[in-house]
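DATA SHEET
Item: assembly model
Revision: 1
Owner: S.N.
Input lines:
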Amino acid sequence: MSANILKVENATMQFGGVVAVDNLNLEVNEGEIVALIGPNGAGKTTAFNMITGVYQPTNGAVWFQEKKIVENHPQGKMEKLYKGEHAGDYTHVLAPTPDHITKLGMARTFQNIRLWKSQSVFENVLIAMHCRTHTNFLAASLRLNRKEEQDQWERVAKLLDTVGLYDVKDELATSLPYGKQRRLEIARALATEPKLLLLDEPAAGMNPQETNELTAFIGRIRKDFGLTVFLIEHHMDLVMDISDRIYVLDFGKLIAQGTPEEIQNNKRVIDAYLGVAEDA
Amino acid sequence: MIQQKSKKGAVAALIACTALLAVIVLLENVSVFLPASSVPNLLKPTSQLFAVLKKGAVYSLAAVSMNLLNGFTGLFSLGQAGFMLLGAYTYAILSVPVADREAVYYLYGGSAVNFSFQDMFGSIFGTQGVGGAVSMGLGVVVAMILAGCVAAVFAYLIGLPVLRLKSDYLAIATLGFAEIIKAVFQWQALGPVTNGANMIKSFPTFSSFNITDASGTVILRLSTFFPFLVSMICIAMICLLINSTYGRAFKAIREDETAAEAMGINLAKHKMLSFCTSAFFAGVSGAMFAMFVTNAHAKVYTTTMTYEILLIVVIGGIGSISGSVMATFLYVACSEWWLRFLDSEVVLSNGMKLPFLRAGFRMVVFSVVIMIVVLFFRRGIMGDKELPDLFKKRIRKEGAK
Amino acid sequence: MEFAISVLISGISVGGQYALIAIGYTMVYGILRLINFAHGDVFMVAGLLGIYLSASMPLYLSMPLVLLLTVVLGFCIERVAYKPLRSAPRMSVMISAIGVSYLIQNTATYITGGQPMTYPVIPFLSDTVKIAGTSTKWVTILTPFLVLVLVLALTQLIHHTKAGMAMRAVAKDFETAQLMGIRINTIISITFVIGSALAAIGSMLYFTNFQAITPTAGALPGLRAFVAAVVGGIGSIPGAVVGAFIIGICENVIKSTEFTVFSDAGTFALLILILVLKPTGLFGEKVTDKV
């Protein structure tokens, strides 16, 4: 088995007295497509935010490519309030900002589309390449980086071509139909040259046909870009179709993990989604 | 294949700028070349026109640098006057000729800084004739660059704590910083450097760039040309910056910080870059402002000045460089020139006085005009478009026909 | 000791006057997210009105009239300059506020000729009183109590009346409040009316102490009151009051030392310090950006 690219270790996220994610442990191996599913409010997006540095976990650690990138332990007011486990296991604080994590090779999309609204499709992708530029501020301002710039422009064009957005490259990002905006968000994430792509409900609000297209699309970019994909999704067709493994969260806790078949037949998962009959 | 923005545009802009500069030089030299009697009042060196042009050039740089921060990076900062003050004082302190220092700092028995760039270059190139001109010019330019640098350094120091603040809190913190700077520069204890609450003067001003012959008669006026040249170069640099990869990152921060950060743009670093760059150019414009008013006086750089520049930026259109520049000239011309007549009482031939016209009425009318512009041009005169965009659109429309 | 007491008393008194202005800033901000730059000028106009009106009529008539006219002014400013921009970008409204401030100052300069005017002496308030060995005006003693009463009344209004409830709803979520059938224009007008009324009362107290009124006399107290509102956490009324007292005392303490020139710089330094420690002020709500 190939080495894991992402490992979340005993991660707990607590807001005040509310434990949003409780002692989460998961691994994503290189080249896999792994899905994180669960009912609304289960803490999936919070888990994503912990991994990408938007939130700092209250306790626990995140490893990326065998290197610890995030670590925290309850401090200050949290020390008394903390309700999770493994309180004493972590002693360091490692809190990189999201941009730092992106530069390590992890890119994400957002549940509620967050494109740069008044920029064109082309610019949206071009801006995302900024984090890979080597030119310094002064040289870039004085246009001493023509070659790099030209190179970036060509790469954006190629990328847009790959994702099928080249013909709308000059449109305003927000003027695109919903499905294409989602696709643009993925293209934008790809522009940061990630090894691991995190997709937060990429099919939200899509009709079945668009969802099918997206399923094929994710499969294709994984191959083309040699990616590992970790995604949150509610469309079970999509999830069961493309995932190698699935993790299920409910009320912040991991309740099941395994292959799609295993998950489909897991009683706890079915209960979590359909609810348990109190008295029939 | 995708091409970057064509070089044609750059060439066109360059030609336009050169042409504008040539027109300026011509305009201000009409009075030199033609006999005094045939020069219309408008083109006399004392005409309001040139004052407006000079002030417009100075303010447009200030406005564009503020637009870089407020319009392009989305950081609502009100520290502009503070940075201009820093620039003005740095320039003034480094430019007063050593010989004049005793007189300027008479309250403090001379200046603590016994050095000026003009003298330094003077000792290399000589102080007379062409050598004198070169050393004066170099001295001014070097002092202006340093003025920008000092403003940028202060921006860095203040930016470290305050750039974490959000929108209005950032605005009030930077405004507070400007007030603090103003108070510090008026402090008696710093008198030997800043001349306390008094003004610093006797440094080279715009009129020092007029070329005179041995007898002192002006043979070529460049006093309006110089601020235009400097502002143009600076604004061109800001334009280049905005269209560079860093400028695009600024815009991403403006539109969605979270997304920008998730796409690998370091917020702290880029905000700081924008803040310092804006302060640098504000400092340069401050130095020019000192040259324009021929003195550096801390109490001029009030919050009102910042509001004025903010007003210009918004009227021009947040996020539009050409809008800022056009709004500046309109604003300055309107406030200083076109409405002047409202300030003087007019007695009609039958002895009746026109109502309302007396000192102060100009500003009342001017503020009403501003209110009207603000209420009816919500997105400013240019929105976030640039001048060339308008032409492009027209061409496209015609092409469609 | 006496000196310290007198500094403290005048600090609290000035703080109270700032509080009355600061409430206007903070309430408007709470509802419209607008820094109402014209508020300090409304305060100045209230002072000028006091001068002009009491020149032609007795105080017991002129002072209520000042209150009324200031309220009308505040109301009109909102209707003319802010209401048409309800859907415009936030910056436009702010610029409109700056424009109004500009207009008021310039009109005042035009009418008064830019000369400082002297505020009338209000009997009793201007009488001197000896307290703890230092003599001061009655207004100084009365201000904090008056402020306290007014603020209590205001909190009652906000927490126990229908209009107050609507105000809180609008402050929480503008659009939802609108959808729930709250007439936001009325609520916003009420906010401006209350703010202007408090500013008018503030001007009576403030200018009894500092009698010279120039067209820019509102700018500095306005700015300080605004700083106070930010220190307290803009949008929060108790915050504004606490902030105002802090700013007032801080200003007077600095003024009593040899660093008088730094009295404003000192308050701003305090402001920056507080913001660095608590980025949304003492009582401000934390804004979290949902990802």
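QC remark: Chain A has a mean pLDDT of 89.
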